[in-house]
Amino acid sequence: YLKCSDCGANLNYKYTHDNPDNHYFSCRNKRAGNGLCSKTHHIRVDVITELVRRNLSEIVRFAAAFEGEFVKIVMDEQYKQIQIQQRKNQETLQTLLARNREVDVLYEKLFEEKILGNLTEDRFKKLSEKYEDEQAELTQRIRHMKKVVAEEQKHELNAEGFLQLVRKYTDIQELTPEMLRLFIQKIVVHEKDVKWSKHAQQTVEIHYNDIGCVELPQPKGQSTAKGA
Predict the structure, then answer these.
(1) Share of residues in the chain with pLDDT > 70 (%)
(2) pTM of the model as a whole
(3) What's the mean pLDDT when you consider all of the chain?
(4) In sequence order, what DSSP letters do the residues of 131-183 get, joined into one string?
């Protein structure tokens, strides 16, 4: 369920051999060193587990107590957020596609310059390798963004479907695999504001099945609940 906010890859589970109690997740692409992500998005297992449990518990309590208001929040605010995200993803994809076409043109001009004798063999080799590497990276990023765009377009909000689950789980004391499967779509983990700092802020977006990422108001007598 854990996704990197920068590249969209899964976060892989790890632990340090010299300290087996240090269980954490980090970006798969960063650890692979494939150039698709430059940040670790490191987060401890106990931290993310408690954060998700607490947020899910608050969402469930609020939805159960204020069904009408909950439906309005989901249908009004989250629809806008999803539209914004879809537009952002489309813009990113179009930018990548445009750059890919631009590299194609540059590659063709490079060959023309070589044929005309305006480039040495060594210079031609260096530039062609540069464009090949960039295009290989662009191809991977375009493939990923097309997948992201397709998944976003399939996602539809369904507050009533979420409420049906809520009525079955009114008191969440601990997370279980079944709860994750039923409630969670994905969890987007951002990089810390200050790397390796224990007190640095770190944004985590919890996207629920049927309703997306919800930020709840604070009614009188109720605690604040956020989906990020």
Answers:
(1) 88
(2) 0.59
(3) 83
(4) HHHHHHHHHHHHHHHHHHHHHHHH----HHHHHHHHTT-S---S--HHHHHHH
